[in-house]
Structures are given as C-alpha cells and as structure tokens.
C-alpha cells in the first residue's frame, strides 16, 4: 500500500512544475527518479519545518521487550531488535520505540516525516514483508497509528509520512475513538514483522533519522492542484431504485462463504496487454481457465467470487490527441467473459470496478496505473458520464442475459487507502466521485452497490452518507491490535449501519473459528482472501482451502438442513 508526501511534492512541484512526477510513492517500490533521495534535505530546508526528535537525543528513546539495544551510529538512532519465536499474535510480532514530548502538543495541521533503514533477518519479502509506521499517544492513553509502510528490501532507505487527522481517512492508518489530537504526549515508531518472516530467532536493526514536523498542511494543500469538487450527476428521487430496495429487504438472506479470485495477471485481465504481446491476455483469452476455476469453486461449496475489473487502470484506455476517447476493444469482451463463466457455473460474483491504486501516488514510470485526473480533475466528467455509464449499461444487459449472477457491484477496493487522500481536500472530492458513480449504477442498472472498506471501523466512520446497499469490511489479524472493533467480538446489531453487512476480505487463518463467529454474530457472509495471490495468503491447493470447503459442504449437507451447527 503506497503513500504520497504532499509537503515534499510541493517542493518538487516548484522545482519542476510537474505534480504527477512529484506525487510519487513513499513506500514499497520506492521512486524511480532522483526526487526520492532528495526528499529529506528538501523538507529540512522548508521554513515551516521543525525538528520533533533529534537522533542526538537517542538516550531518550525507550522500547518494549523486543528492543535489545539503542545507540547512535553514523548520525542515526540504531535500534537492535530481536524476535525470539514465531507467533501469530500481532502484538508479539511487532516492536516499538517511544520518546516522550516535553508537554502536551497539538499535532493538528501537521505532516510528520522521518526516514528509516532496516537491516538483518527481519525484513521479509513481497506483499507480506515487514512494515514500519509512526504512532501517536494522547494524554488519555488513546492511540493513533500512521500509514503502514512496507520495507521493500534490506538496507533501502524509506521515507515515512503521517498527516495526523481525525476528520478524514489516513491511508492504511487508524485511530482509537476519542483520540485527542491536541494533547499528544508520546510519539513512537513501530516495526511490524511480516508474515513472510518465519526463521527464528529473527534479529535486525532499525536506523532512524530525525523526526520532522511540517507545520502548515493548509499551506501545502493550497500550493498543490485543487481537486474538482463539482458533481457529474444530480441527486434526485429514484422511485425505481426505492422499489428495488423494498424488494431486496424481502430476500432470503443465508450466510454465504466466498473467495477472492482477484486476478489472473494483476492489472491486465480487462483490456489490452499493457506490456506488449500477446495483445489480448485478458479474460476473453483465458475463458476456459476462468470457467474451470469457477466450476471447482462451485463443487467446493463456494457461493460468491469477488473479482477485479479495472484495477488501477494501467490498461483499457484509448486516447486521441492526448484526450481520453474510450475503452479499448478488449475491455467489454473481457468483462463479458466473467459473466459467461458465472452463468455456466451458476456462480454469484462481485465485480470490483476499481482499486485504490488508481491514485496511489506510485506514478506510471514503473508500469503501474496512475490516473488521478479521472477522479479528481476535469477528465472525470467524460470518464463517468460516457465511458463508465455505457460500460455499466452493458454489464446490466449481460447480467440479464446470463441469469443475473451479480450479487453486487463494488465501487472500489479500500478507497481509504488511496494515497492522494493525504492531501487536505481530496477526501471530499473522492466522496463526490463515488456518489456520482453510485447514481449512475442506481439509475442505469438494477445492481446493488457495495464498497470494499478497509476495516469495520472505517466502514462506519467514513461512508454513512453514501447509498450503499450491502456494506462490506475487510479484516486481517493485525487490525485486532489497532482497532477497537473487530468482527469476532462485535455483533452485527452493534454495527451502526442499516442493511446487509459482510466481510469482503478476510485473512484465512483459524478458518472454522472465524466462520462460526461471523455467522453467529449475524453477518451476511465472509469472503476469504485469496485464491491466486503471492502474498502469503494463497489458498490455491492449500489445506486452508480444504478446511473452508469442508465446513461449507458440512453446513449444506442434508443433516444440517435443520440448522444443526457444523463441526
């Protein structure tokens, strides 16, 4: 998950007048331009920057039982870490060093910035590698956790940024209820051991540079491109949609179990191959595999498949004279192929229209998608009113043609984690964009709408004013240590939302325990992450998938038709 540093972007913007190149990743893959290495020096020279912690004061740092030694080496605070044994407990797989502020401090309206280097056998690999992040603690003992930055490789310096706020989402971050941003007394830097680290004892070092505070976020925001907050659609009374809502309330609601089958090749399943040959590498060219996998899911008892469509828009778009013209010739073929597979196998699907990576700050120079102009600027009008409207109309026609396989259409995966949201004002623009997309769906199709919220806390906190028909949250074990609510302990009636609520992504651990808990707590269903990903959670040909299948088939067996609980 990638973040962007608006303050540094501003500086670079003044240097080269290119906000796209300035809004680069501060996380997993790093920036492929020299700008990344320039960030610390640029920030130090800003007149609105002050030093919150100097490494010269390293003796003031203190840590938990995994901190073996704290010293100063080559101008950095060196923290030796030692993890003695493997444990799935997120608390035991993390370590933190703190320093106390001289007095209660108001952190509102700031960016916090530091650089960290990690060495030793604690880095991990891939998406499930280790992460570092800043955290704040207030005078009442409440905590705020900053964006979780993945460590791409040993010895690579990474920059960590945090915009403390309780009024907007913090990408991959969170805060506890009633956290007082005006009374911060302690700052910490936490290291979370990745799931891919499995050799113990695991020892390594953090090298932490000065922690800086850029003290005027509004000034930074005023110097960056302002998002276009104008609506593309109008909010009107839709009687047809209101009738559908009444009808949906009468539907029988059985607990469902699904699987995330997000992609065959990330970012190129729908649309022309962005990397060359073969030109058509999407679902229409892999129809047989799609059908075969759906058939296997059906035989295993799976009820619903969650599958991505446009990802980060690295492909699928055609331009003429620099202007967005249409989707390419493969887009509709590839999307229809998903409907065909669902029809042939009698499988329900949740098509995920977009991933937050469409504006993740990663930039296009590493082959990923990056289209903030389609969400936040003038181009959004053409994109929504013409390209998306016609595509959703086509999807609705395919839904009718192929036996109505769509459970719900998902607007976006984890929009809270979109890196652009670190810039003040962009969250409001994103909500307006989502409202327009919802209006198009409700007016042009018969689909239910869902949104893949990052967590059960974020789902309730940020999206209540959207017309969501089926509420969706995601849950991974580390969230239990940071969030005050989790679906294992929280009953559905305690969720402050009306309508169905289900888990759209769920870490595939303690399978039976989690299935029983979510069913007993009254949730609509659970969709495990994920069939075919290489992030440490891959379910393909695993014992975990067999455990899921066995539970489902036992639940659906004739002896359990009376409601007898599966073992």
Automatic annotation (TrEMBL):
InterPro entries: GH. It comes from the Bacteria. This is Glycoside hydrolase family 5 domain-containing protein. The lineage of its organism: Bacteria, Candidatus Yanofskyibacteriota.
């Amino acid at each position: 998950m990638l973040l962007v540093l608006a303050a540094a972007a501003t500086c670079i913007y003044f240097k080269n007048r290119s906000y796209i190149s300035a809004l680069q990743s501060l996380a997993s893959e790093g920036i492929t331009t020299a700008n990344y290495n320039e960030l610390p020096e640029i920030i130090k020279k800003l007149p609105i920057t002050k030093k919150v912690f100097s490494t010269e004061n390293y003796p003031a740092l203190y840590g938990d039982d995994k901190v073996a030694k704290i010293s100063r080496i080559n101008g950095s605070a060196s923290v030796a870490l030692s993890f003695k044994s493997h444990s799935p407990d997120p608390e035991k797989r993390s370590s933190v060093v703190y320093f106390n502020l001289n007095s209660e401090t108001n952190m509102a309206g700031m960016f916090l910035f530091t650089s960290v280097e990690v060495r030793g056998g604690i880095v991990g690999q891939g998406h499930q590698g280790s992460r570092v992040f800043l955290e704040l603690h207030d005078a009442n003992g409440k905590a705020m956790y900053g964006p979780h930055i993945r460590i791409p490789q040993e010895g690579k310096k990474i920059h960590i940024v945090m915009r403390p706020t309780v009024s907007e989402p913090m990408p991959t971050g969170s805060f506890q209820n009633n956290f007082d941003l005006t009374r911060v007394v302690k700052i910490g830097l936490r290291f979370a051991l990745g799931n891919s680290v499995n050799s113990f004892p695991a020892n390594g070092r953090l090298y932490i540079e000065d922690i800086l505070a850029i003290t005027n976020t509004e000034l930074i925001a005023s110097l960056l491109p302002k998002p276009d907050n104008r609506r593309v659609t109008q909010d009107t009374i839709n009687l047809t949609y209101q009738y559908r809502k009444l009808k949906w309330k009468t539907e029988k609601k059985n607990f469902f179990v699904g699987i995330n089958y997000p992609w065959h090749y990330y970012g190129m399943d729908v649309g022309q191959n962005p990397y060359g040959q073969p030109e058509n590498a999407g679902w229409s060219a892999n129809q047989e595999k799609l059908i075969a996998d759906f058939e296997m899911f059906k035989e295993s008892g799976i009820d619903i498949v969650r599958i991505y469509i446009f990802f980060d828009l690295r492909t699928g778009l055609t331009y003429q004279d620099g202007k967005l013209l249409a989707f390419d010739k493969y887009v509709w073929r590839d999307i229809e192929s998903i409907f065909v597979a669902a029809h042939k196998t009698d499988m329900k699907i949740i098509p995920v229209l977009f991933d937050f990576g469409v504006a993740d700050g990663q930039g296009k120079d590493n082959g990923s998608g990056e289209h903030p102009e389609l969400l936040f600027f003038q181009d959004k009008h053409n994109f929504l009113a013409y390209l998306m409207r016609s595509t959703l109309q086509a999807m609705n026609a395919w839904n009718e043609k192929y036996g109505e396989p769509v459970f719900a259409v998902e607007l976006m995966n984890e929009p809270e984690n979109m890196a652009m949201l670190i810039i003040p004002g962009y969250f409001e623009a994103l909500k307006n964009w989502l409202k327009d997309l919802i209006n198009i769906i409700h007016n042009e199709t018969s689909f239910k709408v869902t949104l893949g919220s990052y967590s059960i806390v974020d789902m309730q906190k940020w999206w209540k004013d959207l017309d969501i028909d089926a509420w969706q949250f995601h849950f991974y074990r580390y969230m239990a240590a940071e969030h005050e609510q989790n679906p294992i302990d929280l009953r559905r009636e305690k969720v402050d939302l009306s309508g169905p609520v289900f888990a759209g992504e769920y870490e595939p651990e303690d399978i039976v325990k989690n299935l029983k808990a979510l069913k007993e707590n009254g949730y609509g269903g659970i969709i495990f992450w994920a069939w075919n990903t290489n992030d440490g959670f891959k379910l393909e040909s695993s014992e975990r998938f067999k455990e899921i299948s066995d539970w489902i088939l036992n639940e659906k067996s004739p002896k359990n038709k009376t409601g007898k609980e599966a073992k």
